[in-house]
Write a structure and sequence with these properties.
Blueprint: E1 2-3, E2 10-11, E3 17-25, H1 29-40, E4 45-48, E5 63-65, H2 66-71, E6 85-89, E7 97-100, E8 106-108, H3 111-125, E9 128-130, E10 134-139, E11 142-147, E12 150-161, H4 168-172, E13 181-190, E14 199-203, E15 214-218, E16 222-229, H5 238-248, E17 262-269, E18 278-279, E19 282-284, H6 300-320, H7 331-336, H8 339-349, H9 354-364, H10 367-378
Parallel strand pairs: 3-4, 3-12, 4-9, 6-14, 12-19
Antiparallel strand pairs: 1-2, 5-8, 6-7, 10-11, 11-12, 13-16, 13-17, 14-15, 15-16, 18-19
Helix pairs in contact: 1-3, 1-6
This protein binds flavin-adenine dinucleotide.
């Protein structure tokens, strides 16, 4: 092990041949959490990540919902101010619907430091973390890696695919893969403190965000301005849609945008948890498993919860020396509990014109419409309990 600077965790280098109990591919939140839990249970875990640093590029806004903040110990210094107010806008931004919760509903994390803190936690638990190391395939039960010291092979009893929405591990283990994807992009910048309470602004306009939403999260410290939608439905591309939205987005300070802007983006699986996410050789967690709310596209809470289930299953399999517990790692059962959200996702996907979006607001402005929106936006349905 070598220690690589004050802000980075201790990092292990991958040699030409290795063995380990568990190889975790991908050090996003899902992989970091699964690896840490397994190492805490005393297992030998190698976590490989293709990026050389965990602080860039970042592929999430970092909005954590109340249920996650209640159930997981996230480092407080990485969390922005609580958000209780949500404003929903139709195309044209006229007559928005404002919803205010009596509780703190969301907090936006400073994701770079949060990933680094999680990596320190993993290494402290005993995880061997190899950055700049890409999983490139699997041959004769051996996982092939390409790292700073060249190619290497790893024999692992189990492989965990935490390698995101377009998982290579899923393909190599013959597990299900995501086909129903949105793509999102956002700009993030610092803002001066204003008089407005921290607010999450959402615009339902299929010309900007076909099949999903455009958003501004302004928590008084940072603004996140983003759009997401079905890639084949952007008339002039995702980047242009983001530019158009940023030019007239609601909820931003009059001071305008600073010169320094961070750009984020990536695919978001919204087809629901995949059915086949485990086999005798390993399993999938996080986006690789499709563990994202099909309606809200929130994946941070689901990825933490599914990684917890995965770690329990793998711990039992390693302790008993038999892969039988992996048979209980059943995506179909979890998926069944997302049925309502999958139906609502299909409904949102049908909102194809600004006129349809405006009509949806007629419903949203009624008391039952507002109550339904509150249940979805301020509810506890981020991920079903196993
Ligand atoms: C623009 C955008 C905004 C979002 N905002 C929110 C939000 O505010 N709140 C929310 O709840 N959800 C949000 N989501 C969804 C959420 O970010 C994801 O569901 C969640 O981060 C998934 O975590 P993960 O660890 O499964 O995947 P990832 O964070 O994608 O991590 C996968 C990791 O695997 C690595 N990797 C991939 N392939 C390989 C390989 N071959 N070898 C080695 N490493 C590999 C990648 O580099 C990456 O680090 C957003 C998504 C997008 C795209």
């Amino acid at each position: 092990m070598t220690r690589t600077g004050r802000t980075g965790p201790a990092v292990g280098r991958v040699g030409p041949e290795l063995t380990t109990e568990v190889l975790v591919v991908g050090a996003g939140l899902a992989g970091l959490h699964a690896a840490t839990l397994l190492a805490r249970q005393g297992h030998d875990v190698l976590l490989v990540e293709r990026r050389a640093t965990l602080t860039a590029p970042i592929r999430t806004t970092g909005i954590f919902v109340r249920r996650t903040l209640d159930d997981f110990a996230l480092p407080a210094e990485c969390l922005g101010p609580p958000i209780r107010r949500m404003v929903l806008y139709p195309p044209g931004l006229r007559r928005p619907v404002s919803l205010v919760s009596t509780r703190d509903e969301y907090r936006v994390a400073d994701m770079g430091p949060l990933y680094v803190a999680a990596a320190h936690g993993a290494v402290d638990a005993g995880v061997r973390l190899a950055l700049g190391t890409r999983y490139v395939g699997r041959r004769d039960g051996c996982s092939l890696l390409a790292g700073p010291d060249g190619p290497a092979g790893v024999r692992a009893r189990y492989v965990v695919g935490a390698d995101g929405a377009r998982s290579r591990v899923a393909r190599d283990l013959g597990l299900d893969r995501n086909h129903h994807l949105l793509v999102g992009a956002e700009e993030v910048f610092e803002i001066p403190a204003g008089d407005e309470p921290p607010t999450f602004h959402c615009v339902l306009d299929p010309s900007l965000a076909p099949g999903y939403l455009a958003w501004v999260v302004n928590d008084g410290r940072h603004a996140h301005v983003g759009v997401a939608g079905y890639p084949d439905r952007y008339r002039d591309g995702l980047r242009r849609a983001l530019q158009r939205f940023a030019a007239s987005a609601p909820g931003l300070p009059v001071t305008g945008r600073p010169d320094e802007i961070e750009r984020r983006g990536g695919p978001i699986p919204v087809g629901g948890v995949l059915r086949r996410i485990g086999c005798p050789d390993g399993l999938l967690v996080g986006d690789a498993a499709g563990a994202v709310s099909p309606l809200t596209a929130g994946g941070l809470d689901p990825c933490l919860r599914l990684s917890g289930i995965a770690a329990t299953v793998l711990d039992e399999a390693l302790r008993t020396g038999r892969p039988d517990p992996l048979a209980h790692y059943d995506g179909a059962a979890l998926r069944a509990r997302f049925r309502g959200r999958l139906t609502l996702r299909r409904a949102l996907a049908q909102v194809r014109t600004p006129a349809a979006a405006s009509a949806a607001f007629t419903l949203l402005r009624t008391p039952p419409g507002r109550a339904a929106a509150r249940r979805i936006l301020f509810g506890d349905g981020s991920f079903p309990a196993p």
